[in-house]
Structures are given as structure tokens and as C-alpha cells.
């Protein structure tokens, strides 16, 4: 089904970026962080170590200061 979807979009000159399940997890973590979800609850939901969440948060803060 995914290939058909991308082929149909290509015919209409619509391009979207493909996202992997791993990328989707990172996106989900980023959305949760931006929504103000406490960082210690995110690892429970996604199975990440707490250290990883703080690394993502540090990256987001750096980007927001640019």
C-alpha cells in the first residue's frame, strides 16, 4: 500500500518525506517534549533511557536559541 500511495502522490507532483519507525519515535518524543510532558515520563512511554530524553531536549533547546 505504501508504494501505491507514494506513486499516486508523485503523479500529482506531491512530495512527502518518508519517515522510518525509528524517526517516528524521535518525532513523537519531540512532540511530547514540546507539549511540556515531564521528561521522566517520556522514557516510560517510548522505552528510551532517561539520558536519551535529556540529550534530545538539549538539542531542541540549542535549536530554539538559533
TrEMBL record:
A GO molecular-function descriptor: DNA binding
Q: What is one process in the GO biological process aspect for this record?
A: DNA recombination
Chain ranges of the Tyr recombinase domain:
10-48
Would the keyword Cytoplasm be found if you checked this record's keyword annotation? no
Q: Which UniProt keywords apply?
A: DNA recombination
Pfam families with a match to the protein in the record:
Phage_integrase (PF00589)
- Spell out the InterPro entries in the cross-references: DNA_brk_join_enz, Integrase-like_cat_sf, Integrase_catalytic
What protein name applies here?
Tyr recombinase domain-containing protein
Which source organism does the UniProt entry give?
Paenibacillus paeoniae
Q: What is the lineage of its organism?
A: Bacteria, Bacillati, Bacillota, Bacilli, Bacillales
Amino acid at each position: 500500500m505504501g508504494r501505491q500511495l507514494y506513486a499516486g502522490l508523485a503523479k500529482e507532483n506531491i512530495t512527502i518525506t518518508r519517515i522510518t519507525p525509528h524517526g517516528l519515535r524521535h518525532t513523537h518524543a519531540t512532540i511530547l517534549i514540546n507539549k511540556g510532558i515531564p521528561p521522566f515520563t517520556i522514557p516510560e512511554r517510548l522505552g528510551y533511557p532517561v539520558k536519551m530524553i535529556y540529550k534530545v531536549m538539549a538539542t531542541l533547546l540549542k535549536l530554539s536559541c538559533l
